[in-house]
């Protein structure tokens, strides 16, 4: 129905364009987040935290679909505490009103694959603390789905880039020096094929899962979201150069420096355990999603131009 209520938890880099897609599709949209601001025009705003079970039930009242796009601070300790709580509360709230729960997830629970492309049938094999946490939380979702407690579907994506992606590898730490005329920095191996998901593709993929007829989902609880073919990080950087109008030098952080920084910078320690994703090809196979929904990712040149335009607007004015 045109007035179906779709509730989006989290208005960050994916939640905002997701809400915009849903609004454009004629849906009534409620955005739930802890702080005011950053709400797309035309969407309702409800302030609060998904850490509260009763709040989640109130926020999901009347919903046809609920979207979980939240991610706590990039910390294994934070994830251990908050990710199960968020998932449990949203399962209860969405299940209580019969809404479809659409969950955005990453690929950490798959661990090392020996370079084999990852699809919906790739078994979980976490090799990091954060991967183990993600695996447990994902299994709790699928178990509740098997028990009929919630109608749930999960869309998975690799590392993000694109408009709004301030906390990505092509975000703050890349664009600030590049737009100042300096080299970009890669903390990982820049010469290994790696899937990068364009944020608007992720948002449209989630909206597609949330709005699809039940028979379209074919009983599958898991989908790899649409993406362009994997390329090396160096190739990704080269894509940005025409839109920027000049070459972008790329420096690689030596391993000893990454190790040293990890001793004093908590975020670097958290990132370091995920370096395995650049030690071997890290490739997403999205063919099942493409075949089911006839949805293609944004062309690489268009995505690069939009990313550079966003970066200029976001970072050029910052000191």
Description:
The chain is α/β, with parallel strands linked by helices. The chain has a domain at 5-160 and 196-227 and 281-298: 3-Layer(aba) Sandwich (Rossmann fold), CATH 3.40.50.720. The chain contains twelve helices and eleven strands. It has helices spanning 15-24, 53-59, 76-97, 129-146, 172-179, 199-211, 214-217, 233-244, 255-264, 266-272, 287-293, 300-315, and strands spanning 5-9, 28-33, 44-47, 63-68, 100-105, 151-156, 159-161, 184-186, 196-198, 222-224, 250-252. A seven-stranded parallel sheet has the order 3-2-1-4-5-6-10, sandwiched between helices. Helix 3 links the parallel strand 4 and strand 5 (100-105). Helix 1 (15-24) packs across helix 6 (199-211), helix 3 (76-97) runs parallel beside helix 4 (129-146) and helix 9 (255-264) packs across helix 10. The longest helix is centred in the first third of the chain and has 22 residues, at 76-97. It is globular, with a radius of gyration of 19 Å. The mean pLDDT is 93.
Strand content: 15-25%
The CATH homologous superfamily name of the domain at 5-160 and 196-227 and 281-298 equals NAD(P)-binding Rossmann-like Domain
- Count the DSSP helices: 12
Structural class: alpha/beta
Strand arrangement, major sheet: 3-2-1-4-5-6-10
Classify the helix fraction into a percent range: 40-55%
Q: Quick check: average pLDDT? A: 93
Attribute tags:
single chain; 319 residues; alpha/beta; Rossmann fold; seven-stranded parallel beta sheet; two-stranded parallel sheet; 12 helices; 11 strands; globular
Summarize the topology:
Elements lengths: L4 E5 L5 H10 L3 E6 L10 E4 L5 H7 L3 E6 L7 H22 L2 E6 L23 H18 L4 E6 L2 E3 L10 H8 L4 E3 L9 E3 H13 L2 H4 L4 E3 L8 H12 L5 E3 L2 H10 L1 H7 L14 H7 L6 H16 L4
Parallel strand pairs: 1-2, 1-4, 2-3, 4-5, 5-6, 6-10, 7-9, 8-11
């Amino acid at each position: 129905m045109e007035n179906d209520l779709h509730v989006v938890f989290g208005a960050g880099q994916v939640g905002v364009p997701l809400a915009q897609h849903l609004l454009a599709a004629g849906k009534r949209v409620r955005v739930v987040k802890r702080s005011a601001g950053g709400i797309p025009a035309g969407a309702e705003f409800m302030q609060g935290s998904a850490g509260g079970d009763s709040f989640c039930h109130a926020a999901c009242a009347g919903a046809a679909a609920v979207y979980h796009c939240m991610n706590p601070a990039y910390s294994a300790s934070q994830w251990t505490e908050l990710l199960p709580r968020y998932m449990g509360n949203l399962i209860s709230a969405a299940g209580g009103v019969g809404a479809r729960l659409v969950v955005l997830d990453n690929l950490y629970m798959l661990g090392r694959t020996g370079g084999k492309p990852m699809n919906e049938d790739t078994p979980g094999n976490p090799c990091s603390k954060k991967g183990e946490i993600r695996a447990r939380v994902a299994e709790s979702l699928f178990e509740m789905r098997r028990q009929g407690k919630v109608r749930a579907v999960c869309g998975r994506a690799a590392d993000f880039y694109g408009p709004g992606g301030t906390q990505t590898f092509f975000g703050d730490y890349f664009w600030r020096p590049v737009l100042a005329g300096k080299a970009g920095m890669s903390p990982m191996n820049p010469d290994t094929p790696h899937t990068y998901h364009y944020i608007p593709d992720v948002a449209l993929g989630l909206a597609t899962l949330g709005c699809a007829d039940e028979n379209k989902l074919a009983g599958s609880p898991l989908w790899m979201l649409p993406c362009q073919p994997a390329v090396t990080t160096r190739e990704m950087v080269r894509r940005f150069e025409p839109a920027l109008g000049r070459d972008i030098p790329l420096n690689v952080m030596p391993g000893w420096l990454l190790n040293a920084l990890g001793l004093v910078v908590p975020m670097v320690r958290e990132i370091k355990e995920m370096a395995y994703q650049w030690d071997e090809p890290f490739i997403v196979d999205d063919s099942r999603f493409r075949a089911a929904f006839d949805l293609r990712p944004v062309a690489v040149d268009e995505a690069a131009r939009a990313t550079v335009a966003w970066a200029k607007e976001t970072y050029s004015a910052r000191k």
